[in-house]
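Same chain as my last thread, 215 residues:
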Amino acid sequence: MVREQLRLALCRWGLPVRLRVDNGAPWGSWGDFPTALALWVIGLGVGMHWNHPRSPEENGVVERSQGTSDRWCEPWTCVTPQELQARLDRMDRLYRETYPYRERKSRMEFYPGLAHSGRSYDVAQEPGLWDWSRVAEHLSTYVVTRRVDRGGSVSLYDKSHYVGKMHQGKIVFVMYDPDLNEWMISDREGRQLRRRPADQLSRERVMDLNIRGRH
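reply #2:
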């Protein structure tokens, strides 16, 4: 559902250079590996920026815009979701295309690039546009912490990976090797404890938004 709505937005506005998102579903948590949806976006050549936790000021423009929507649209007076959506659509057009912003110009006039990013997107062309190497390179930049459980394993994308019972309770560091498509698990001293196949990660599974594994 989220991806389908995002595709509609991309068709209309074009591919952005970067998306700024909050933490949690469906984008993932700051400081952990990205969700399948975020990886799909990265594969399209769009950068991702996760706001720091509990820092709404990092997305101040959107926060203010939501306040404006609330004041202008008065959602509590709408009878149906469809009525509210129609008001929101009208407000968005007024805010972008009519309401004075600077030099007596609307935002659309002042920033003509708002009409389209210049980077075209078409759902039918997505398989050719999407590139797994972008995803692999992005994942390789992460160092994520895990605590080894009683069974000697850590969980990555909901799949259990064995490290060793002698390490239970330890904090370990997980990195991704894009060349071998493997997880590298090390201790605090940088000693490699285990390498495990990252078989959940592939072009097909990310494109299907299906990278969660079973324990």
